[in-house]
Amino acid sequence: MAALQAFNPYLPSYEYVPDGEPHVWGDRVYLYGSHDRFNGYSFCLNDYVCWSAPLNDLADWRYEGVIFSRDQDPHGNRNRIQYGFAAPDMCQGPDGRYYFFYFMGDHYIKVAVCDEPAGRYEYLGVVKYADGVALGMRNEPKMFDPGVFVDDDGRIYLYSGFALQSNPILLHGEKPTVKGAMVFELEPDMLTIKPGYEDVHYIGVPGPGAAEGTGYEGHEFLEAASMRKFGDTYYFVYSSQLSHELCYATSDNPVSGFRFGGVLISNGDIGLDGRTAQKATNFTGNNHGSLIELNGKYYVFYHRQTNRHQFSRQACAEEIRFEDGRFLQVETTSCGLNGGPLTGKGVYEARIACNLMSAKGTRFYGAFRGLKGHEPYFTQTGKDRESNPDQYIANMRNGATAGFKYFALDDTRRIAISGKGNARGRMVVSTRMHGEPVASIDVTPSTRITTFPAAALKPQTGAQALYFTFEGTGAFDFHQFELN
């Protein structure tokens, strides 16, 4: 049996797990993240779940189930708009057990514990100072999105911070982390802050207003703290003030001296090859993730937005170049974990598009939902669920483009599309964005998902992108395409 292919997003299309933190335990990679709800009214509404895949097959992701639910938290009955289960992280403690650090929008960073990486975690407590006062209750800047890291010498570090000013999620007199990302060292009990960290300790990744002359200008810290170590160098991953991009900083120690390293990825490819926000290749929104080495290759994990807002985000990943200690910004693709281009034969869901735009371009999705009538978007039928995937691209109107990268098209000769809607016109296919057509497929109105007659594809060589642009009237719901 042929090996499965890996796509982006790499989890089933009904699954919405943003803020991904990948970790390797044994012969599997485990994904920990928030859990959005399809068409949710706010961020992180669902319980924490876990997915994992064998290291030798990054296309074979397995659902590990709910690992921690709201009813296990002492404050789990609070309203979910302000107290969603936000971006978590985890590590293995000195006792061999696994510790899950999370945040619910209040003051506290909390911890749950389990004997297995993906078992049912039990509530342990809040992170606190040695005198018992909870972290976040001493007039510190706002705690947010915990990142936890265990160094080679066994020392345990907790990272946090939120640097967006004048934001409604700053509650009860909380302050933004203007000076940037914070770090605290923990005792082996995984709850108590070590002496010497009673005062806020900043690692040197500044927020807005504190970056002048530091090298971080334009990429100041916002949120999404995550730490990794490759060789003898520490790599701090974070979301910048631009929000759509993940950046990194490096140091020779885990608590200070970090210098700006560069951009890892933008979920609209902004900044890649000089691309501006006005030329973004996708509708953008916030971004959160991390770096990991798997099988001798390096990957950046991130997320994309769906359904016209930021509240239904999905996990994606890309292989990333790592040269002379530096990571180079990588483009978003449809085949991120596949190890190469997708085959030029078979049926592909439209939901794996890595580029999506209307004739008027794209935009940054704000914190509030809003549909512009001309915009295409990723969506699904029905309500949030854990089965029956049917995600597709809705509302492709005249000039809308969906891009897929990459395919080995040497032996591909025909191409067909499936969808429905009141659209009448043609779907023009090219291998470059707005490039010369290599195929054209007629589209007519249909109330049911219809496969339209296949068209000849001009001969291609090597790995190529495929861009589908609708030209005509009405709206087309793009479900899938077939290569033969």
Automatic annotation (TrEMBL):
It comes from the Bacteria. GO terms for biological process: xylan catabolic process. One of its GO terms (molecular function) is hydrolase activity, hydrolyzing O-glycosyl compounds. The keyword Acetylation does not apply. It holds the Pfam family Glyco_hydro_43. The record marks 145 as: Important for catalytic activity, responsible for pKa modulation of the active site Glu and correct orientation of both the proton donor and substrate. SUPFAM superfamilies: Arabinanase/levansucrase/invertase (SSF75005). InterPro entries: Glyco_hydro_43 (IPR006710), Glyco_hydro_beta-prop_sf (IPR023296), Glycosyl_Hydrlase_43_Enz (IPR052176). Keywords: Carbohydrate metabolism, Glycosidase, Hydrolase, Polysaccharide degradation, Xylan degradation. Transmembrane segments: none annotated. The keyword Hydrolase applies. Belongs to the glycosyl hydrolase 43 family. This is Beta-xylosidase.
